[in-house]
Every structure is written in C-alpha cells, then in structure tokens.
Hints:
This protein is mostly beta strands. The chain has helices at 16-29, 31-38, 42-47, 158-166, 299-303, 358-361, 393-398, and strands spanning 66-69, 85-90, 96-100, 107-113, 116-121, 126-130, 137-142, 168-174, 180-186, 191-196, 203-204, 213-218, 221-228, 234-240, 258-264, 270-277, 280-286, 294-298, 317-320, 324-327, 345-351, 362-368, 373-376. This is KIB1-4 beta-propeller domain-containing protein.
Amino acid sequence: MIPCSKVSLDWASLDKDLVELIGWRVLAGDLQDYASFRAVCSHWTASTVSPRQRGVVDPRFHPRQWMMLPEGHGLYPGHPDLRGFVRFFNLSTGAFVRARLPLLDDHVILDSIDGLLLLHRDHDTAIRLLHPFTGDVAEFPPLASLLPQIEFPHSYNEQTKRTGLMSVIASVAVGSTGTITVMLAFDLLHHVAYATTGDQRWTLFAWKIEPLLNPVSFQGKLYAMQMICKEIQKFYIYQINPPNQDATEEQSHLPLPVKIAECPMEKFLYTLNFVECCSQLLLVAYNGSSRSKLIIYRLADLVSGKFEPVTSIGNHTLFVDERALCVSFSPNKGSKNLPSMPPNSIICLNNWPLNPDPEQSSHFEQYDLDTGIWSPASDGNIFQRPPPSPHTLIHHIFTCCHRKYWNKGLMFCVETEPFWLVKEELRYGA
C-alpha cells in the first residue's frame, strides 16, 4: 500500500461531468458552499453552472437556508447609515454575510421567501423579486393595480389601504419553462392575489377566506387557517395553489382553496403560527386556555386526521411570532464564535395572564419541549425602548419575525448602536 503522503491527485483535472455532479450535490446542501466549490479553480468554475442570471428562475439556486437579519437599533434594511448593505444569516450553520443591495435606495422589503426578497418600489408600487446574492430580479406589476379590484371597508383611508396591501405573505412557484408566479396573501384584507412575470396587473382570486389566519408559504403554495366559532367550533386549514402556468389556455383556471384539514378547537385553543422545520410544515399552539404549555403538530398528521403532538424537534429552535423561523446552528457546526441556540425549544412572546397591554402581559420566553418548563429567553423587557444592552443574538433573530423591523414605515424609534457580529461580504463569481 502506498503511503497517503505519497499519493498525489490532480483534483483540477477531474472529469467535467464528475465535477458537475459533485457541484449539484454540494448545492443541495447550501448555496454558499456551492459558490466556494466553484471558486476552487477555473476548471471547476467552467464545469459547473453559474447562479448568475438563474438565481430566481431556477429554484435550485434559491438561498433557502439564508434569512435577512434586520440590524435592530432603528437600522432597518435600506437605512442610510448601512450604506446599502444588508446582513443575512444561515439558519443551519449560523454563518453571517453581508450583501450590498442598491435597490433598497427606493424599495422596501415586504417578505422573504426561500431566501428571495419581495420588494415594493416607492414611486410606482412595482413589485420585484430579488435574489440578494446574485442580483437577479424578476419584475411584477404595480401593487396599485389591485385597488380597483378590492372593496375596502368604508372606514379605510388611503393610509390604511396602503397598510393592508403591504401586509403580505408571499409564495413563489416556478414553472417548467421558467415562468415565475407569485401569490400574495393579504391577511388584513382576507384576500389572495397572483401575478406572473410579464403580466400587466395583479389578479385577485374571486373567493375570500375570512378571517384569513396565519398564512404561510411552503413549497410554492400558501397555507392558512380559518377559525369557525359558531356551533361547530373548529379550525379549518386551507391549501392555496397557484394557477397552473404550464397548462394550455383551455385548461387554465383559477383554483379554489382546498380545505385539507378540520381540527376541533379544543385540540389547540390558541394557535401561534405555522413553521417550516426539516422540510415539514408544523403548527405551534397552546394546549388550552391556561396557555401554560405549547404543543406542536405536523401538518401532514392533521391532514390525515391524526392529533398526536410532536414530542421532539431535536437540535432545532423555533422562533414564533408574526412569522416563524426554525434555527439549528450550534458551535460544533462551524459557528464557534456564536452562542448556540437552546435545542428542542420554542422562543416566543408568552402572553400570560390575558392582558390587553403587551408590556404588562407579554414575556419573552423559551419553552423546553423536554421538560415543559418556561424560562426567560434573554435579560430585559423586549418592549423597552430602546431595548436593554447588550443585545443578544436571540433578540436579533426575533426581529426577523416582525415586519415592523423590516421597513422605515413601521419601525420603532430606537437608538442606533453598532452591531456586534463580525462583518463578512458574500460575492459570487461569473
């Protein structure tokens, strides 16, 4: 046997097809790893597909593991002091990167879907879908094209109409020909609309779900709940599919929402939100009116009529509020300079006792699924303005769950402080 020290392999001369195959395997893990793989040598760069110009139209290049991280301290994305840079963090590894996004000079961020950013242009309400790392953009019609299609309540003025239209949860579906369809769920207006690249206006679905509770995007579709509080007292869960853009003109139609589950209200009297974890959609809720315990159900189980709570989510931590995130990074996964997240836990604002004043009733806490015990998630009152210093990583991740930290129109007035995480820029080659 030849000693390992005497074996020399010319990695740069690997067969092109083999390099391409390895590249796709690497991409299945993380886009940043794929970019590093392509940068090893010119042969590997030439043998693999560049993300540029394909970042939006090819779902394989969507940066699913990356989430935009609002800076906090009053520094919303697009704030002049950030000089066009926005920070992102990896939900699995805890890596932090910066990307320069010049579009934020005259756009605001409405949503983040699979790592893509849904932008609203200030002067004409045009909607754009941006890949933050490749710079690729897909264009969509102005949001104002929906105004003639929606019957707003008489009490709505121009500002409340704008707020209703900009409070959205979006989904993105890519057809086999590269056609991109975006659906927008307006939870305050109980409507859903869609548009496809090349359309001149948004189209409102004729149906309406009222109330439209906790819409969430998952695998190109929207899911939402409806609470029926009359005699039957049930939660209905709906799946909302995008129009089939690959169908012929005769076959195309606007699909109706599909009721996929009926859940007795006593199973979870107070719901928090849906959250994607390990390629599954989970539902997090309190177990009863006391709000003393949290329970988790798999959507797939609810669809099949099973009401067996999930007892463990492993090393994952769920951040749940207006929107939800699943984070799983720890020091042994390459984040040695960052604190690990509490495993098998849920971090949320625990509303007890019932009190209309959130500063008196809401506690920023973590719930341990192993023990069923609540404990403070961090020091200080999260509602204090400015929040206590130093700010923890948990505080910063929690800002991802709130739209008010995403754009200047909804920001709290808080003091500006330097961010303590190491800056690193993410760039992609040709």
